[in-house]
Design goal:
mainly alpha, single chain, elongated
Length: 184
Amino acid sequence: MSEPGDTSLRTRVEQLAREVAKFGAVGGLGLLVNMAAFNLLRHTTDLQVVRASLIATVIAVLFNYVGFRYFTYRDRDKSGRARELTLFLLFSVVGAVIENGLLYAATYGFGWNSPLQSNFFKVFGIGVATLFRFWSYRTWVFRTHPAQPEATSEAVEQAEKFLAEGAADASSESGQQQPAPRPL
């Protein structure tokens, strides 16, 4: 026999799993966009590795915003789009610093600048930044609608019942008939 809390925990875990899958789908496509732009810029221009990576990151961030807003978090609060976009860009910049900071350290700190090494550290940086982005986007950017807890509505019902019984007891003691308070 399962406890009622088990269902709630199970539901939350299932919701989180769906969210992670959707985030991963958009992120996976964003990874492809990021890596394609990075390698295209790296091999067709004279841009340095980290500059090419930053441009590719910006392209992927724009792509990902559309995917997150209209696919992953389409059911989330849509009020305050300016706030949402500002926070998205702020956290994306932090993610870009993480992603490209690792690439910068590998390229200029250790001299690992071959195409294979650059791609490896680009993907590694994206992976580390993705953990930060997932946490920050779901916590701060794409907020859930405030939930109405069941305990609150039960407490309101109990309070109304208590008040109604108290009014009935008071009126029977005084011998007067007072109408019971109406629930809100």
